Amino acid sequence: MKWFKRMRKWGLLAAAAATVAALSVYCAQKPSGTVMGSGAEKVYVAPGTYDEFYAFMSGGFSGQVSVYGLPSGRLLRVIPVFSQNPENAYGYAEETKPMLNTSFGFVPWDDAHHPELSQTNGVPDGRWLFINGNNTTRIARLDLKTFETDEIIEIPNAAGNHASPFITMNTEYTVSSTRFSVPIPQADVAISEYAKKFKGTISFVKVDSDGKMSIAFQILVPGYNYDLAHAGKGPSHGWCFFTTYNTEQANTLLEVNASKYDKDYIAAVNWKKAEEYVAQGKAKTWPAKYAHNYMNHDTQTAESEMLTSVKVLDPADCPGMIYYLPTPKSPHGVDVDPTGEYIAAGGKLATVIPVHSFSKMLTAIEEKKFVGEVDNIPVLEYEAVMAGEVQNPGLGPLHTEFDGKGYAYTSAFISSEIVKWKLGTWEVVDRIPVYYSIGHLMIPGGDSMKPWGKYVIALNKVTKDRYLPTGPELTQSAQLIDIESGKMTMLLDFPTIGEPHYAQALPADMIMNNSVKYYELSANKNPNAIKSEAEARVERKGNDVHVYMSTIRTHFMPDNIEGVKVGDTVYFHVTNLEQDWDVPHGFAIIGNQNSELLVMPGQTRTIAWHPGKEGVFPFYCTDFCSALHQEMSGYVRVSPRGSGTPISFNKRG
Amino acid sequence: MHRRYLMIVAALAVSTAACEKHRNNSSWSTEAPVVETALVPGATPSRGVGPITYFDVNTIPASRATEGEQLFKTRCSACHKIEERYIGPALSGVTKRRQPEWILNMILKPELMLAQDPVAMELLAKFLTPMANQNMTQHEAESVYAYFREHDKSLPDLPADGSADTAAPEEETPKGPPGTN
């Protein structure tokens, strides 16, 4: 039995060694996964005090934008953009329904990917937030005074608006590019004719001084997939860069067939040159049907117009307007550093991060260092435009943000980490694991000329074991990482709505002081508004019944309505007479196949109701407004079709 | 004006220091010298809590009542009627039973009044719905005051000895729920 004893001895030793090893692994991992000491203080925002930054995160497939405070990670608000929101009647109320109009009709959902703050002189200015609708090719503009969606424009001749809505340094343009090439103009053709008949477009959407968007011109490009974009800044102002993949022009099993070539392209567009060509009349006017929806601030009602043409530039007519920069391999992100000189590509399937030089690109164009041409677009020589390659950048590099101190931070999806590297030397100086599968990352102002390089946020697709389980569907997540001290330190995990695809952030004082507290009742020009209880009334117009109703703490006027009949359409036009901050009133009626209303102070909102059966039906205020909120209610009497019950309603004073 | 006289102490008679103090107390910080006003006799003596320390009602002409009536209609009438109790108390006679400063402070800073002024607190306890802040300017609140004053012109003044009951109007004697007699 000697061997047995020996085995036991060895076994114990082995177990002890394994324990020590496990402990040392645990200890080694601890600093990256756990907040140590002052880390908690760095994200603690005491009750009643404000966060330092606003962060705007896309809701991804929720179609909305979420607003968080940093560094606390507290969710402040969800702003409905592309999806109906029964919580506040966005897309249900008559005043906001037109915002979701498209050439396909009413589209109640989209996939919101990239929030982009407006900029002045290359720095976020806190006026507006733009965001793309990835599915039904749209760009929305949100007003950061009211945190409401102010405008949505559809992009024609495009399918899948992914490389969008990145803006130029003075918000001259927001851009869009088709993710999925399609027949342009759309036509009934065999899918196998992809290479011959499918095209892409790059669109430049003009932004007026009041924010209003209009499509200035589109550029016809070869039928690849266009993925992301960023505009030049400083010396590269006037240019905009777009990544492509699927230069193979595959139309099936793209994961294999669109990953064959060792390089794809970054399209460099000289938009100032494009403007000149438009001015010279080089653009052709194509018929195109697309919706343009915007909030009329006087009537507080969204208006929708269907536009019918767009200007299209063909590179064949416009030499010098667009070039292709070969870039390894299936590049995803394209990010311009704060100086405007370096253009970093997230070479999704590449083993390096290729970084192009803007000045080298200009020289290469001047010296005609072309290796070929695609559909009249010259292809530049890789070595002639490349500034450097970051070696060993992690697996699956996607996106890069900058801290303004000479460093770049790149997300690596497959190896779940952020890699910090130095501009100019291209050496990796730090890396930190993130949990898990990071897509975009964000430094406040990190894609602008003046980053506030205090934090980087990892926007993760997968959380697995990081939070309490919630059934098959788990939250996606953001992680806040300190970058101020030089070494990246994990501070905080917080869950996000939908998919936190990309984000933008800026110091709180650039927005909070402009925040609207209520709408002036005297300026309310909604045709269905009433300015006092004395104007409250009910009117019948054929089968439509219009209820002009007021709310104030804590009653509706009128609150007893009779004379409605089965088969009528009842429009409740509810005006909130309050003139104070944080006093919305709600309105809901039993059985309504529609949402509730949430009416801000001074605002008028309308909800339609189709009473389907006779009876007496209560309505009530849904937003707890005062001690007698529960009493804020009323009744509508519904009589049979053809009944003689006249319209009547109660009224005081 | 034999009982409701206003004892105006000229600005010159007030020390500069006192003047500064009053200005600092007022968020309006007008350059005009603060004029101390006497209490309206017979009314509850509280001037309330808020931006208005002293309000010289003589500076508001009767003509402002028209503007005040319009404002009352859009900003106040959803909760107040003149002659009858509605959500809040009836306002007939309010300029006789309350100090003008109290009225302005109640319009301009109701949250502060309901938290700190005993008369306002008593009113809230009886009416239960807190007075809404309708974000009026001082000018607008003064016009509403002028509207009340014009209405109250025909009413008798309260006895100067303070013997009139100016407390918040009593609820009707509450009855028990059904079945309890």
Structural notes for this entry:
- The complex is a heterodimer of chains A (653) and B (181).
- By secondary structure, chain A is mainly beta.
- Chain B contains seven helices and no strands.
- Chain B is mainly alpha-helical.
- Chain B has helices at 16-25, 64-76, 94-97, 100-108, 110-116, 118-127, 138-152.
- Chains A and B meet through loops of A and helix 2 of B.
Number of strands of chain A: 45
The count of helical stretches of chain A stands at: 7
Biggest sheet statistics of chain B: none
Number of strands of chain B: 0
First-last Cα distance of chain A: 105 Å
Biggest sheet features of chain A: 10 strands, mixed
Mean pLDDT value of chain A = 94
Say what oligomer this is: heterodimer
Cα separation of the termini of chain B: 51 Å
Radius of gyration of chain B: 17 Å
What is the compact description of this entry?
The complex is a heterodimer of chains A (653) and B (181). Chain A has 7 helices and 45 strands.
Summary tags:
heterodimer; A: 653 residues; mainly beta; 10-stranded mixed β-sheet; 6-stranded mixed β-sheet; B: 181 residues; mainly alpha; 7 helices; globular
